[in-house]
Design goal:
Elements (H helix, E strand, L loop, with lengths): L2 E5 L3 H13 L3 E5 L2 H10 L4 E5 L7 H10 L8 E5 L4 H10 L3 E4 H18 L2
Parallel strand pairs: 1-2, 1-3, 3-4, 4-5
Helix pairs in contact: 1-5, 3-4
Length: 123
């Protein structure tokens, strides 16, 4: 079963992503910190990474940069989303190589389409 790894802080987004991924026949794994994330990537190859930007304990832009510089993870699509009032963080995510960057409202609205798009694109 295809896998989505998500790094989110807000429960409402975690629940929405898990529901949308199930509806599309995909499994999701929710992680909350960078150590758990890198450990999971040692064993799993996700089709998509969904990353909430602006989590206080995680530098999302730096994580994106590390993923895009690593030869074993650079091709995994990354969709970053965050508070529209923190446009600086969204811009940083884009500059570091996120494949798609959205404010939270647009992300939530487009979530099913995003999952379908990346599932079809990477079959």
């Amino acid at each position: 079963m295809p896998l989505i790894i998500l790094i989110v802080n807000e429960i409402v987004f975690r629940d929405a992503i898990e529901r949308a991924s199930r509806e599309e026949g995909m499994k999701s794994l929710c992680l909350k910190d960078e150590d758990a994330f890198w450990a999971a990537l040692q064993e799993l190859t996700p089709k998509l990474i969904l990353l909430e930007i602006g989590i206080p304990t995680l530098d999302g832009a730096e994580l994106i940069q590390k993923l895009k510089r690593n030869s074993s993870t650079r091709k995994i699509p990354i969709v970053a989303f965050g508070n529209s009032l923190r446009a600086d963080l969204l811009q940083d995510a884009k500059e570091m190589g996120a494949d798609l960057v959205l404010p939270k409202s647009a992300f939530r609205e487009q979530l099913p389409e995003i999952i379908r798009h990346y599932d079809k694109q990477h079959k």
